[in-house]
Amino acid sequence: MADPIEIEAPDDTGSGVVRRFEYQVHIAVQAVLEMLAGGTVIHVTCEHIEDIVVAREGDPGCTDGGVFWDFQQIKTRDAVEPWTLTDVIAKKPLKSLWRTYGAVAGTGLTYQLTAGIEGHLDPADAAVVALSKGQGGDNEACRKRVAKHLDVTEDALSDFLPLVRIRPLPRRGDIELRNTRVLADLGPGLTMAMIDALYNELLRRTRDATQGLPVARWTELLVLDNPPAAVLNKRLSAAAIADVRQRLTRPDHVLLEDLSQKLHATETALVRKLRAGAASQEVIEEAQMLRAHADRHRFREQALGAWPGDQAIETDLDQRLLLLARRTGRAHRGQPQPADVIFDELHRLLDASPGTYDRHPLYAQDGVLLMGRACAISDECKFDWGSARDVS
């Protein structure tokens, strides 16, 4: 019997829809991370009026000390070329922002309308650059094309275009890595496993908010006195993630739990080698984090079928990384803390010339991912990080 998986689907758009939804969730988590960092974000509302609504305090535009609202429409695409005004118009974020403009006009809010786009803008397209800075009304070509797109007069855009911004966003393959880096910075004493667990928890809560799923005690967590039912389950406030912040700040019982794990957990070869080279705790944690990121990238590419089947390609990369790591180790033998010096120098070299080693590329010619792969090679006992005993 034939497997249905071998039959070409008449409509295969579902997977793309899920990927776009997940991307939007990761973008919303960026603002949640700002809350965790003690930034200006007060709360984040998902799928109400726009894809994401971020409320901030302390904005210069709020002369009375009120709240500044950022209504965000998020757009993705598979192409890697820079966005022109034609591309932006084709994806229709401006139509959604125009509807939002009509909905909030006259409410007294201080706000902006943001088209968040996956990728980067074409710097040679003056019209899209002007639009991205809130100067679309000053660019005649931009003004005319947007008016035609929205089927309105140019005069009708006089108040709308100054409110519009275009914000380039990290691509889908990079957004999770960037967010977990930030989270790791907020909890520098936590293991990568705990960082991943906390990030997955933030993703879960944001997905629930996007779908409007009820959360216990939600009414108490909102800043509005009487929030409408449509918004009640769609907002993430600082209080809603207070427990995550508590875990990042490491109360005593978490510290004791971490100490117990260090005493009894199995130590990897990577950690043992770093310790032999007198590595600082910070470098050990960075190495674990980078190795986890590289592994996650590899597994994701394999799941998507993008990883090459030719083993020689991966072998070539590993051999290049191994030669560079061993050469770097020899150059820094005899240092008081050789592991820290070797780690920083190896990372610098990979950041400076990733294409020299990742020629396919397997790891997007990204120095961070390549450093993670180098840590994985060390974990396979193929090179070490020096020895503090070598110091004369």
Structurally, how many domains make up the residues?
A: 2
Average predicted local confidence, pLDDT? 82
Radius of gyration equals 25 Å
Query: Stretches where pLDDT falls below 50 for ≥5 residues?
Result: 216-225, 251-265
Fraction of residues in helix? 40-55%
Q: Please give the largest β-sheet.
A: 6 strands, mixed
Question: How would you sum up this structure in a few lines?
Answer:
With 392 residues, the protein is of the alpha/beta class. It has helices at residues 14-36, 85-91, 93-104, 126-132, 140-150, 172-186, 192-211, 218-221, 229-232, 242-248, 252-264, 269-276, 281-304, 311-331, 338-352, 354-357, 367-379, and strands at 41-48, 50-57, 67-75, 110-118, 164-169, 235-237.
Architecture overview:
By secondary structure, the chain is of the alpha/beta class. The chain folds into 2 domains: 14-237, Trna Endonuclease, Chain: A, domain 1 (3-Layer(aba) Sandwich), CATH 3.40.1350; 269-390, no CATH class. The protein contains 17 helices and 6 strands. It has helices at 14-36, 85-91, 93-104, 126-132, 140-150, 172-186, 192-211, 218-221, 229-232, 242-248, 252-264, 269-276, 281-304, 311-331, 338-352, 354-357, 367-379, and strands at residues 41-48, 50-57, 67-75, 110-118, 164-169, 235-237. Strands 5-4-3-2-1-6 form a 6-stranded mixed beta sheet, sandwiched between helices. The N and C termini lie far apart (71 Å). The model is unreliable at 216-225 and 251-265 (pLDDT under 50).
